[in-house]
Amino acid sequence: MSERLKRRLAAVRAQGKTGLSLFVTAGFPTPDATLPILQALANSGVDFVELGIPFSDPMADGPIIQEASQIALRNGVTLNGILETVRTFRRTSEMPVLLMGYANPVYRTGLETFLRRAADAGVDGLILPNLPLEELRPFISPAQKLGVDFVHLVAPNTPMARIHQIDSASTAFVYCVSYTGVTGQSRPLAPEITQFFTVLRRELTHPLFIGFGIRSYRDVQRLSPFCDGVIVGSAFIRELQRQRNRDWQEVAAEFVQTLRGEAARQIAGNP
User: Are 34 and 26 in contact (CB under 8 A)?
Assistant: First the structure.
């Protein structure tokens, strides 16, 4: 297991706070934006970052992240470039970085080769939504020896027996999507979903992070009782695109403040 990620997850639980992770597509909005965005998120106290590997044919991503991937690909982003960005970032920060993408580009390099190169660059984990647990099993032990964690996804329609398998194979945390479908949708937190989260939290032996559809401090507060942390992606991508003429570091820092409710407290004059 990645020692950086292990320490960070332990700190989240010890502090009794809701962990916060943000997703950003590498090479978006511009090729030179990724590093300063990572640095701003680290300085803002984000627990870890999911750095998206852009891909031309995503299955789980909604239109916002799909567009970000297309922009990044037009910007000429490559796997080599992404790993070099992580390597540069690692010189000044210990914030964990997980790469999230699809198996296709990784398989082109070769999963074992990619794991070694990712570990050498300072990557802490890998999330490949279109690669099932059965195909990952042969690589879990080699990845652990390299200090790279595989993070697996579950959803409200995942059978509990399957969830137990995924939990058993996990080395860091379990990523639960808050609904069935693609990223970026806004859906009410139905009673059956909150019940699912309650059961999931009780059944899992690893920390639980919830993602998909989380846009605001209110969303974070609603989900906090059911998880160890939340993951925000499309809303952050949308904000970077909306404020593309501003300094990336300022936009990232302000967005983190908004998710934590700090901006609202400052307006109200509270500490």
Answer: yes
